[in-house]
Amino acid sequence: MSTDPTPACRRGFARGLALAAALAVSVCGANLAAGHHASSQADEIKPVGDSSTLPTPSPIAAGLPQIFALPKSVEFAADFTDLQNTLDGRVGLAVMPVGGGDMVQLGDWKDGIAWSTIKVPLALAALRHDPQGMRSTAEAAITYSDNDAAQELWISLGNGSQAADAVEAVLREAGDVTTDVAARHTKLAALESDDLLAFGATEWSLADQVHFASRLPCLPRANSVVSLMSEITPSQSWGLGRLIGAEFKGGWGPDDDTGKYTVRQFGLIPTLNGPIAVALAAEPNSGSFDDATDMMDKLALLVGDHLPDLRGGLCSH
Questions:
Q1: Can you say whether the dihedral through the CA atoms of 58, 309, 265, 287 is positive or negative?
Q2: CA-CA to 191 of 20 to 30 Å: which in 31, 109, 198, 272?
């Protein structure tokens, strides 16, 4: 962590200090530093002007995630909150380094239907099962989000239960131990795993999704799927598609009762010290798909603005 912030960083620290506690709560695995460590860190930060008029840096700051350098993490959270306050609807964002590490999660949208984002682990499962026969089908399912192609991938894995097992195995391999593909184990599930496009009804939290994304490039034979994520059709290149070098997949659909759209997306973004995994979601109060993608653009551009502050990672093998 940085202990000699520039004046601009100090301003970001002062502006965002009040958000440090909220950010720390949303960070998976963040631990509060011991009191002695917090005290020494406070001594090392040299504020501008009369120090008696400035608040003492919070000891929570010492436990902020290693994905950021202090005080940039607080500034990122502050900028996210500023953006969120301008958006008419719910949004969520999760970020972590590729290969694993601390996760930062922000916003009030945390869980929902996967929609077409589940086609990524589905494509990987199908390509492992039949790499030659399913290549063009996987390409259509990922780059154009073709539902018929995705259904072919699903059928290639066996019956509904076998297909769900295969996709869940990919998720478990990437460290997602909770996602229930096709809601097979949920009594209130509206779809059975043998029904058309049942995989799209999977509930996938942002936290589980960004964990999966952080391990995706490290999985055996995943390169073929990740490369397809860099070839998304322009009409679906909103959100993370606005960032140079992004590899991503989106998903969207209307609520059965209200007809209002939710749009979500996850992907990999290059940084100077390795790629980061990002997961986004937007649910506008208007219910409009266009409003949702506009919100996704703004979330992605916020991430892009803070890429110099983000710490990426690499696969360990």
A1: positive
A2: 109
Report the CATH fold assignment for 89-309.
Answer: Beta-lactamase (3.40.710)
| H or E segment and range at residue 13 | helix 7-16
Long-range contacts of 126-134 (CB under 8 A, 24+ apart): 126/153, 126/154, 126/156, 126/157, 126/166, 127/221, 127/224, 127/225, 128/220, 128/221, 129/156, 129/157, 129/166, 130/156, 131/221, 131/224
Using CA of residue 217, residue 307, residue 40, residue 81, what is the dihedral sign?
negative
Q: In this predicted model, what pLDDT tens digit does every residue of 146-169 receive, in sequence order?
A: 999 999 999 999 998 899 999 999
User: At residue 54, what are phi and psi to the nearest 5 degrees?
Assistant: -105, 150
Which sequence spans correspond to the domains of the chain? 7-84, 89-309
Token pair listed for 106: 């922000």
Which pTM does this prediction carry? Answer: 0.76
Rounded-to-integer distance, Cα 189 and Cα 6, Å: 53
What pLDDT score was predicted for residue 197? 59
Q: Can you point out the beta strands (E) in 156-246?
A: none
Antiparallel, parallel or unpaired: β 247-254 and 261-269: antiparallel
Count of residues for the chain?
317
In 3D space, the residue among 180, 183, 200 whose CA is nearest the CA of residue 192 turns out to be 183
